[in-house]
Amino acid sequence: MKAAVIVFPGSNCDRDVAVALQASMGAKPLMVWHRDTQLPDLDLIVVPGGFSYGDYLRCGAMAAHSPIMREVKAKADQGTRVLGICNGFQILTETGLLPGVLMRNKDLKFICKDVHLRVESDQTDFCRQYQAGQTVRFPIAHAEGNYFADPETFKAMEGNGQIAFRYCSSLGEVTDGANPNGSLSNVAGVYNARHNVLGLMPHPERLAEDLLGGSDGKAMFDSLVEALS
Ligand SMILES: NC(=O)CC[C@H](N)C(=O)O
């Protein structure tokens, strides 16, 4: 599998995801600066977490207009797999590659803690090594993770299996109490209509080996390697 990680001024999870990818792929991903305009042939593009452009205007708004994002969009339109984590998810909604928006957390605070997620679908290249309904633990660290889509869009997304993860209790119950940021229907991650683009607020790369305190995130990178190698 050939993978690239996009690096923006203010990215801070680019190296974390590169380490997680290398552990699953057995090779280093290409690190691509946001000013670049071309990407080689790739199986996977990762848009990582952080604070691109200092979160000015709103998270992801400026990064979405970086030169490289035009190329990321073209590749995604051709079917290349794109994974956006946290700030990456925000950038992908801002570019229109994913439906919906990410607003300020309901309590207007930055939240940094581990959460539980219910895997909603195991039928994609990103999640085949999970099981639908499985509960996993991933960290979150964000101020703008409050997902929203208009009712018509959301209904279509649900009908098309585009909900990837929902916040839940440690027992797998999707309740208001388990929703850290006010997201519509506890949504933590979504796919585009073709399921080749995934964005999620929680960080799989931050719990991808036991040394980090857990490895629930590893199956996402292993799934991609299995599907794309
Ligand atoms: N960890 C991240 O990627 C954070 C994303 C963004 N800066 C926010 O605070 O919402």
UniProtKB/TrEMBL annotation:
<keyword id="KW-0067">ATP-binding</keyword>
<keyword id="KW-0547">Nucleotide-binding</keyword>
<dbReference type="GO" id="GO:0004642">
    <property type="term" value="F:phosphoribosylformylglycinamidine synthase activity"/>
</dbReference>
<dbReference type="InterPro" id="IPR010075">
    <property type="entry name" value="PRibForGlyAmidine_synth_PurQ"/>
</dbReference>
<comment type="function">
    <text>Part of the phosphoribosylformylglycinamidine synthase complex involved in the purines biosynthetic pathway. Catalyzes the ATP-dependent conversion of formylglycinamide ribonucleotide (FGAR) and glutamine to yield formylglycinamidine ribonucleotide (FGAM) and glutamate. The FGAM synthase complex is composed of three subunits. PurQ produces an ammonia molecule by converting glutamine to glutamate. PurL transfers the ammonia molecule to FGAR to form FGAM in an ATP-dependent manner.</text>
</comment>
<feature type="active site">
    <location>
        <position position="203"/>
    </location>
</feature>
<protein>
    <recommendedName>
        <fullName>Phosphoribosylformylglycinamidine synthase subunit PurQ</fullName>
        <ecNumber>6.3.5.3</ecNumber>
        <ecNumber>3.5.1.2</ecNumber>
    </recommendedName>
</protein>
<dbReference type="GO" id="GO:0005737">
    <property type="term" value="C:cytoplasm"/>
</dbReference>
<keyword id="KW-0658">Purine biosynthesis</keyword>
<keyword id="KW-0963">Cytoplasm</keyword>
<dbReference type="GO" id="GO:0006189">
    <property type="term" value="P:'de novo' IMP biosynthetic process"/>
</dbReference>
<dbReference type="GO" id="GO:0004359">
    <property type="term" value="F:glutaminase activity"/>
</dbReference>
<dbReference type="GO" id="GO:0005524">
    <property type="term" value="F:ATP binding"/>
</dbReference>
<dbReference type="Pfam" id="PF13507">
    <property type="entry name" value="GATase_5"/>
</dbReference>
<comment type="pathway">
    <text>Purine metabolism; IMP biosynthesis via de novo pathway; 5-amino-1-(5-phospho-D-ribosyl)imidazole from N(2)-formyl-N(1)-(5-phospho-D-ribosyl)glycinamide: step 1/2.</text>
</comment>
<keyword id="KW-0378">Hydrolase</keyword>
<dbReference type="InterPro" id="IPR029062">
    <property type="entry name" value="Class_I_gatase-like"/>
</dbReference>
<keyword id="KW-0315">Glutamine amidotransferase</keyword>
<feature type="active site">
    <location>
        <position position="205"/>
    </location>
</feature>
<feature type="active site" description="Nucleophile">
    <location>
        <position position="86"/>
    </location>
</feature>
<keyword id="KW-0436">Ligase</keyword>
<comment type="subunit">
    <text>Part of the FGAM synthase complex composed of 1 PurL, 1 PurQ and 2 PurS subunits.</text>
</comment>
